[in-house]
Amino acid sequence: EPNLVHDQLGQKRPIPKNGGKKIEFRRYKALAKAMTAITEGVTPAGNSLTVTTKEATVKQYGDFIEFSDVIDVVGIDPVLTEGAEVLGEQAGLTIDTVMRDAFCKGTNVQYANGKTAQTIAAADVINGTDVRKMVRTLRKNNVKPINGYYICIIDPEIAFDLQNDADWKTVNQYNRGGEAIYEGEIGKLFGVKFIETTNLLIKEDQGASSAYVDTHCALCFGQGAFGMADVEGQGATKPRIIVKPTGSAGTADPLNQRSTEGWKTMFACTILDNLAVVRYECAVSA
Fold it and tell me: Among 18, 15, 47, 53, which residue's Cα sits nearest to residue 34?
């Protein structure tokens, strides 16, 4: 199963039960420089805070599987237990993919080797210069690092190309147990920590029409990039498992032939600040 990493990286906000379907994330804009000197004895005009808001609406996701009473009687495997594991894997992948797709909708995009989406080619793989460009973009936007580092989500194929850089450091080279390690963290380069997942967004048949390539979409970001919300008791991190035994459906199942097992969750996720995240698109080595 894919390594699921997206839910550890956003601002989390709970919605109380019976608190509605929408949540509002609020951000205060920085004040302009106060360049006018204050006159002695005269109160200046002062300033006021400017608030920007980002609204997200929670949506519900879920699925179930059905068992027959025959399986309960003659089945060799512990079907209910096995079903719960399969459903749990499906729930985790679904939630992670919904988050991934929401986080990849940003407008701040960088393509490998300075190309565009229309001109990217098979040789346009990630390199140290492109990493430094992402860092430069975030720093120019005054995006604060997270615990001293920007974070970038990549997949094993991007990691393979990135590890060719002479300055690449693996986790065991820089972390001696003194700081927390992210789920999936594999190394760092130029002030960026890299987190690996196999559930990265891949766009098929991009670039020049004469030589289409699949582009892999990495996410490099700092503080305040993403927001996530769930309803109390319906959280994305702990989907509800729902079991309906045979006989529980009443007249809809008159012979007690069917039971079901499923999961359900309700949450929302969104980009909070497009300036705080760079979507980096590149090809990968064959």
Answer: 47
Inter-CA distances, 59 with 21, 66, 116, 222, 267, Å: 8, 24, 34, 26, 6
Q: Tokens 């519900």 sit at which residue?
A: 60
Local structure of 82: helix, strand or coil: helix
SS3 261: strand
Q: Cβ distance 213 to 125 under 8 Å?
A: no
pLDDT at 152: 95
Handedness of CA 17, 19, 22, 23 (dihedral sign): negative
pLDDT of residue 138: 95
Residue 61 CB coordination number (10 Å) = 15
Please tell me the predicted confidence (pLDDT) of residue 76. Answer: 46
What's the rounded Cα separation, in Å, for the pair 62 and 265? 6
Please tell me the total number of residues recorded for the chain in this structure: 286
Q: Which residues of the chain have pLDDT under 70?
A: 1-4, 16-20, 69-80, 207-211, 231-237
HSE toward the beta carbon, residue 17, CA cutoff 13 A: 4
| Coarse DSSP helix, strand, coil percentages of the chain, rounded to the nearest 5 percent | 25, 35, 45
pLDDT value of position 278: 94
